[in-house]
Design a protein that fits this description.
Serine Threonine Protein Phosphatase 5, Tetratricopeptide repeat, alpha+beta, 53% helix, 278 residues, elongated, 7 strands, 2 domains, 7-stranded antiparallel β-sheet
Length: 278
């Protein structure tokens, strides 16, 4: 009975909120119809439409505002917001580029452009836009938004030390959880390259933000008998200066060769590798 009462109360509250939102929208639509050049009312209407999930109609109002004033900052941001809600990321990137010709130091537009680039998989370009947006931000909200976007780009680019430096536990719990959580991955593979030649692989990897361990086993069969067995182990560690990685592989079978060890270091400025065959 208590559960039924709670559900009925929740339903009533939801209906009241929906009616309130609908009433606000109707009132704003009436104001805009009576005075089409009332920019504040049109902007409020577009915002309420976005909150109600009607991004298509909201975009029309943002575009009308831009026709009235091509440098209307909030209309620029609103139109990019609406396009990205509709997952029109390429169009939002191009629109942001056009806006930046008028307002090259507008931090929020740079952040919207960066998000669109990120959704298109262009993470290096997105990282550069977020970094510039953070530099140009004139208030804490814009600065924090750019920093958060920049941290995620570092994560996508697997530069975890830089991501950690951009975040604190209060900014984005999801990002911090991703960076602090160790992940175990098990993968199996099999292939047939030529007649009579078959291979199978097993890889186990444990990764956290700044370090990783992996072990691999590969069996190569030729005409049903072992041609080669390979065991491998890899350890890697990231720090703000360089990425360090070391691996060792052992081979046995008819294709038995020397143990191969690889030690490598890499940094954004001067990647280098050292191979040692024993």
């Amino acid at each position: 009975m208590k559960l039924l009462s709670s559900l009925l109360l929740l339903l009533c509250l939801t209906l009241l909120c929906a009616q309130g939102t609908s009433s606000d929208l109707q009132s704003l639509r009436l104001k805009v119809a009576q005075n089409p050049i009332d920019a504040e009312s049109r902007l409020s209407l577009a915002y309420q439409l976005m909150l109600s999930g009607n991004s298509a109609e909201a975009l029309k109002h943002y575009e009308t505002l831009l026709k009235q004033d091509p440098e209307h900052a909030q209309a620029m941001e609103g139109s990019l917001w609406a396009l990205q809600v509709q997952e029109r990321y390429q169009e939002s990137v191009e629109r942001a580029r056009a806006f930046l010709k008028h307002s090259p130091e507008h931090s929020s537009i740079l952040s919207y452009q960066a998000y669109g680039l990120s959704q298109l998989g262009l993470h290096l370009a997105a990282r550069a836009r977020y970094a510039r947006a953070e530099l140009l931000a004139r208030d804490d909200a814009a600065r924090q938004s750019a920093k958060l976007g920049l941290a995620w780009e570092y994560i996508y680019l697997q530069d975890h030390p830089s991501a950690m430096a951009m975040l604190d536990s209060s900014q984005d719990p999801q990002a911090m959880e991703f960076l602090n959580k160790a992940r175990l991955k098990l993968s199996l593979g099999a292939s047939t390259n030529y007649d009579g030649l078959n291979s199978g692989t097993l890889t186990v990897a444990l990764h956290k933000a700044q370090w990783g361990l992996a072990a691999s086993y590969e069996e190569l069969l030729l005409d049903g008998s072992r041609f080669r067995k390979k065991l491998g182990a890899t350890v890697d560690w990231q720090n703000p200066v360089a990425n360090l990685k070391a691996s060792v592989n052992t081979l046995s079978g008819r294709d038995k060769r020397a143990v191969l060890r690889q030690f490598s270091t890499a940094s954004p400025c001067s990647p280098s590798s050292i191979w040692i065959n024993c």
